[in-house]
Amino acid sequence: QVHLVESGGGLVQPGGSLRLSCTASGSIFSSNAMGWYRQAPGKQRERVAAISTGGSTNYADSVKGRFTISRDNAKNTVDLQMNSLGPEDTAVYYCNAGGPGRFWGQGTQVTVSS
Description:
Largest sheet: 7 strands, mixed
Helix content: under 10%
Number of strands: 11
Order of helices and strands: EEEHEEEEEEEE
Shape: globular
Strand content: over 45%
């Protein structure tokens, strides 16, 4: 059974930072690209950032220069460092392994509000 467990969400003021972390079971993590997606109320789920098994990264235009995805292959974790957060970043953030058709975490809420 695959487990993706996210942590690190919460409430932050505009301009602030949060770091999300996702821990995955070993066999799935090591053989899959990992990604972070988000879904805001009334909107479709969108990919925010992804990182390949080799460490290549890709970002949505809306977060380029503000968010950084990283993976620790020794710990089976993938993190999303989010800086300069704005209200438009408010969403449930999901960890993913292997693309949209594969493995998902339960999601963690990020709320950006003053």
